[in-house]
Q: What sequence folds into this?
């Protein structure tokens, strides 16, 4: 196995090393001894040369994208406007009674608490108080105001990830996977919907940068092994012999000889002959499995399976992981990052109704998610903000408690950025003093991000209380620009990548230093 000129193994060589480890090869010597456990640490990955060196310190960083589908309105959360601030316009704008907009000591953020404990036509009570979340996380929170370029759901969702094709049409996730993901088994996992799940338009990237789409987060890990979990399956060595025979026959077939140089067939063969054994080597079918062993309903042990070592605490954090898709996605997202399977994961609610556990029968997700605002704006926004912030809060707690590098004391959270990516805002007008009203799509809005790597406790831009519209900022200095109401999608895109330490040289992206903690 030869090293490249830069001293690193290629992704293909890395995966080959993993599969050799799975087969018990002595070729790589003591480096791969006990690789199943060792590969869960960044030190081992760096020894293998598989982790692409970051621009700053040579260690991977992690991006979690939460797709707030339907139009999460920033003026219904961190930039809410009190009625007293809007003066004569208050009754016709989306402003709140003063007592429902809570200030946060030492912070530019606001926190909304809708007074009604029951949310309109959603037949359940929800804690809509945003203040505990903002108080707890304000030092890692950044809100950047924005003006988009589309009010079409799918188009705007994708543009929230590409900055409106700011860098050759690449998504944020693809950029992070390119920077950090070369040695990770599945660098980019995407569990979201619509435009959030689409790949970018730069076809020159390595194939591993593109998102691996996951439709059912709680069951997907059970497909990460070709034979484990099949009752009375042949022994592993017999399976390997069968695979070698299959590969030989395939390569000698008419089809195999005719298309041996086809890129699609080469990619398929690499995934089947190299990638699959590498995944099996890490026992991801167990490590990523949140399901408990509970015979007779879930007899995992009967099929040679087991629950993840982290299963119990994840089931505690996300008790409705089987019935609430977002809870299941969040649990898998944590495991994918912890076990160094991925460097970026995408999750978020869909437009489908989701009902909670059979015991409680609560509504986990209303129809159309944030876009329920077309029917009941205050209800939809309060419900969905509570839903998104609740999942983010639990993810942050889990990442804070998970060591990244015990020699430095860094936690996983120290190297993670969460981006709440919504497609657009909502219209700001309402009938005079209406408590409940409908809203449409609006280009004007803002994005919430959380990370120790961001300039925390910061609002980039601002809001005009007389119109409830946000205004822009200088992405380099952070200075507010009250007259700036034109699109700034590339600024948001560049700011996230800058905070993530992604090398953007040659990209033509604007300087977005204002996003980064100094």
A:
């Amino acid at each position: 196995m030869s090293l490249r000129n830069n001293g690193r193994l290629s992704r293909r060589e890395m995966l080959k090393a993993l599969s050799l480890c799975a087969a018990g090869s002595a070729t790589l010597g003591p480096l791969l001894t006990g690789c199943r456990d060792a590969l869960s640490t960044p030190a081992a990955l760096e020894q293998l040369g598989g982790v692409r060196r970051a621009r700053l310190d040579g260690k991977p960083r992690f991006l979690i994208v939460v797709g707030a589908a339907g139009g999460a309105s920033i003026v219904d959360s961190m930039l809410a406007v009190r009625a007293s601030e809007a003066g004569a316009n208050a009754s016709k704008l989306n402003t709140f009674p003063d007592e429902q907009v809570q200030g946060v000591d030492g912070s530019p953020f606001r926190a909304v608490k809708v007074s009604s404990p029951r949310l309109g036509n959603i037949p359940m009570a929800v804690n809509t108080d945003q203040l505990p979340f903002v108080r707890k996380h304000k030092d890692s929170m950044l809100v950047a105001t924005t003006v988009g370029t589309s009010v079409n759901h799918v188009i705007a969702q994708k543009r929230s990830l590409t900055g409106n094709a700011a860098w050759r049409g690449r998504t944020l996730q693809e950029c992070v996977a390119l920077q950090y993901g070369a040695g990770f088994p599945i660098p980019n996992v995407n569990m979201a919907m619509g435009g959030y799940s689409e790949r970018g338009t730069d076809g020159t990237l390595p194939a591993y940068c593109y998102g691996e789409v996951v439709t059912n987060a709680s069951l997907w890990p059970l497909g990460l092994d070709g034979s484990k979990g099949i009752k009375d399956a042949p022994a592993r060595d017999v399976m390997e012999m069968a695979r070698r025979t299959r590969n030989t026959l395939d390569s000698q077939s008419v089809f195999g000889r005719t298309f041996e140089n086809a890129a699609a067939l080469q990619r398929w063969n690499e995934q089947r002959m190299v990638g699959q054994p590498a995944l099996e080597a890490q026992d991801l079918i167990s490590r990523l499995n949140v399901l408990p062993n509970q015979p007779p309903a879930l007899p995992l042990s009967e099929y040679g399976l087991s629950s993840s070592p982290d299963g119990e605490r994840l089931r505690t954090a996300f008790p409705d992981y089987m019935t609430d898709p977002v809870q299941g996605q969040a649990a898998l997202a944590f495991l994918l990052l912890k076990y160094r399977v991925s460097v970026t994961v995408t999750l978020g609610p869909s437009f489908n109704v989701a009902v909670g556990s059979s015991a409680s029968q609560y509504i986990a997700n209303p129809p159309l998610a944030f876009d329920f605002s077309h029917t009941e704006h205050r209800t939809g926004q309060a419900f969905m903000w509570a839903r998104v912030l609740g999942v983010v809060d639990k993810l942050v707690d889990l990442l804070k408690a998970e060591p990244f590098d015990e020699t430095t004391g860094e936690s996983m959270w120290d190297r993670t950025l969460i981006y709440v990516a919504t497609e657009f805002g909502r219209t700001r007008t309402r009938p005079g003093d209406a408590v409940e009203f409908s809203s449409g799509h609006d280009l004007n809005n803002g994005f919430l991000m959380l990370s120790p790597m961001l300039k925390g406790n910061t609002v980039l831009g601002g809001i005009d209380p007389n119109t409830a519209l946000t205004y822009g900022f200088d992405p380099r200095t952070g200075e507010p620009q009250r007259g700036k109401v034109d699109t700034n999608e590339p600024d948001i895109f560049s700011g996230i990548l800058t905070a993530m330490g992604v090398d953007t040289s040659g990209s033509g992206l604007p300087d977005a230093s204002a996003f980064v903690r100094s």
User: Anything to note?
Assistant: The two ends are 42 Å apart (CA to CA).
